[in-house]
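To start, an entry.
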Amino acid sequence: MVGQYVLRSDIAPFNVLTEEEFETLQKNHTITTYSRNKVIYREGDSADAVQLLLSGKVKVYKEGIGQKEQIVKLAKTNDFLGYRAVMANETHSATAETLEDSVIANIPKEIIFSTLQTNFKLAQFIIKSLAVELSFSRYRSVTLAQKQIRGRLAESLLVLRDKFGYSVGNVLNVNLSREDMANLSNMTTSNAIRTLSQFVSENIINVRGREITIINEPALERISMLG
């Protein structure tokens, strides 16, 4: 499986590297495979490398009171993980866990730092990525605190749509457990189940196991907007 996956020079930010820089990257990275529901790194672990998701999907979450999880980030193929902690020279502030079988490229932080010293475009990419994530995190922290349950779950479904897209028709291209849906929406699992059932009865979505089909996007967007 590992042999099928390689770093590609045509995806960001590798497309801003010189041939020599990319060759150094190729020689110094490792690739690891993870099955579903496996931890990539835990909150408090040292951040020794930046991870690039070559295949799969990942959730990043914080643990709160009573080990209650709050999902703070979702990652798909070609997304990076762990670079905030590397840039800040800190331990990881959250836990990353696979949502499905995944393949990860691990790039040592020494390689990242040495490249940053000579490649301004790579620095620009990382700064922009951090700024975008910060903006999204601030938006979510406000909406999850101010919206009612229906608004929060509607917003989470739209976040999944925007992040992962659709597979066939309007079927979300990610399968989350009810607990994960609750942890993404800052609610209890029972509330998530009940609200999903309400959306089904209102012909807004259709649910088959973990598969969710969005039937009425405008209605979902309206519920999210009204909160």
